[in-house]
């Protein structure tokens, strides 16, 4: 059951990154707008004290950026190198190199999440870190709904 949830999360993240990538191609400041919205959302829902916020944001932003970069690199591989035509042309050695790269990226993501949690534990309680994970998930879900709503209404992304 845990694996199924993990797979759903990975699909969700891939879709999320896909939506963002499409938006960035059309609006250079899209990333900053999303970052601003995310900061406001987390600030509003996590209820940090001023002292916590002063320590929290530098740590969070450091890891959030690196995690985004790793997801983006993984998405580039999936989007540009893993289509049916290119897979057919891959040698076994090239396929293994792609597998190794994807595993490396997943391990790096796990390492970043572990280190972020360890660093956040110096600032937040375990309950607040769990709440942060829920808040991040809620934010992404709401963002996707907004993007979907704009597309359904003829918005360009």
Automatic annotation (TrEMBL):
The lineage of its organism: Bacteria, Pseudomonadati, Bacteroidota, Flavobacteriia, Flavobacteriales. It comes from Neptunitalea lumnitzerae. This is Sensor of ECF-type sigma factor.
């Amino acid at each position: 059951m845990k694996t199924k949830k993990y797979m759903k999360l990975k699909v969700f993240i891939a879709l999320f990154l896909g939506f963002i990538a499409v938006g960035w191609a059309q609006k250079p400041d899209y990333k900053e707008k999303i970052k601003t919205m995310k900061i406001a959302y987390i600030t509003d829902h996590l209820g940090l004290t001023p002292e916590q916020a002063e320590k929290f944001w530098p740590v969070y932003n450091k890891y959030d950026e690196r995690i985004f970069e790793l997801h983006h690199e993984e998405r580039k591989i999936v989007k540009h190198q893993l289509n049916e035509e290119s897979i057919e042309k891959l040698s076994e050695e090239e396929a293994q190199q792609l597998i190794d790269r994807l595993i490396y990226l997943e391990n790096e993501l796990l390492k970043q999440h572990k280190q972020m949690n360890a660093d956040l534990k110096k600032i937040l309680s375990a309950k607040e870190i769990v709440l942060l994970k829920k808040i991040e998930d809620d934010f992404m879900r709401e963002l996707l709904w907004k993007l979907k709503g704009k597309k359904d209404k003829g918005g360009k992304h």
